[in-house]
Amino acid sequence: MKHKIYNYLAGFFSLAIVTTSCVTDDDLIQVDPNNDAVDSFWKTDQDAIEGVNAAYGSLLTDGTYMRSTPLLLDLKGDDTRSNSPWDAMYNVGRFNSNVSNAAIYGWAYETYYQGIYRANQVLENVPKISITDSALKNRILGEAYFLRGLYLFHAVNMFKNVPVPTQIAAIYPQKTEAEGWAQVIADFKSAAEFLPVSYSNANDKGRATKGAALGYLGKAYLFTKDFPNAKITFKQVIDLGVYSLVSNYRDNFTDTNENNSESLFEVQFSRSAGGVDLGWGGAPATGWGKTSARAITYGPRAFGWTDVQPTFTLFNEYKLEKTTTNQDDPRLDATMFYNKPGMMLYGQNFATFYGGNAGDLNDLFCRKYQNSDGAYANEFDWRSGINERLLRYADILLMYAECLNETSDTPGAYTYIQMVRNRVGLPNLATTKPGMSQAQMREQIGHERFLEFPLEGHRFDDIRRWGWLQDPVKLAWLKSRDVEFNSYAAGREFFPIPQLEMDNNPGTIQNTGY
Q1: Which residues form the RagB/SusD domain (predicted)?
Q2: Distance between CA atoms of 61 and 75, rounded to whole angstroms?
């Protein structure tokens, strides 16, 4: 079957319990007399490491970056479209997720809170362990703060008013969006204080760093329109002096140059680690591998399921400006497959392979995060080992430029935008568009981000945080670029709170628009 059928089981940490005023959390949280694992764990350095490793593990399952989270982040943007036969996926980009069917968005919600719970276990228990290496202890706590902040970042950003668990309890009340963001900021601040700038041990590759924590702290400030603090924080990342743009843009989306100088944080996938089964969710099984289903889900027709495709709006916008050598922007070919002389995919010539079907021949397909350079015939084994890059240095540079513009330093924004443009050979913006106003620079930054980050889960976040959906002119413009915006309704920039959470967590209020 194309899409695995799930049993949507209880995994949220808001339990289905009828409470009265005389019942406390201590009454509800009971130790299983047949399982002494809790009593015997959290004793040693190794327990602490394994505990925080489990918190990273929640990044690898279907609810997060194995499949669901990229879909939820990508499909609402004007850079993507979906004609998936799976209604739960098809409806994401049409702002029509079904409250009675929590497929995809409900799995994400569940897994974010699984990750938060695991991070809270670390934060509650590791301080009690007598770890002689204080640097190791601080690092583990920093990783837990970072991961809790990251999972909560996603929960607040996509679901708005959500529980904000900071300790182990039976029920977590729903909090406001502002309260959620405040905790995200607090967690990333703590993480930045504890985490190292880098790791000397190659086995620690992929762990959170100070730069990752500061990068996400800056994003949280930016998303809450605290431009002065965001500017300071992004400059701290730049001043660390450990990040730089890789020369080849496409190296950010293959398995050949992972954890490179441009990457602040990425989810570690591998075809060679663990078993061969996919981590669909729930308790980890011994046969689970560490692979992603993104490639097959986004894969070109006949090589994958083609549930996600680039828009022609994105294709056309890449064509607006030539490089200094009068070539197309090289990010176009790194982002999508299309009918171009010499275009190859999975060892096949595009024009020849699709030549018998005019619809496919003239269509656009995703290339980012595809194993399409010839080593594999297709994606139908469901096992991609390409790391998911969550935060790139290019994003830091463009967000810093945005903060400069929003704090009345529009001239200063040119420098950091041009660093990103130089990588792909685009002309000097200060020459082609000198003296832009603050409003003009906002539009330019929107354009630059659109072309730098398509299919990376950033575009709709930008649309939402810029308030374009509440601006009639901008909303009409979005509708002209992507027909899926025609079904947008107020409030549906956020996903619904899953019905299981509504049922199990007394007092939870559904998001507006559902």
Answers
A1: 262-514
A2: 19
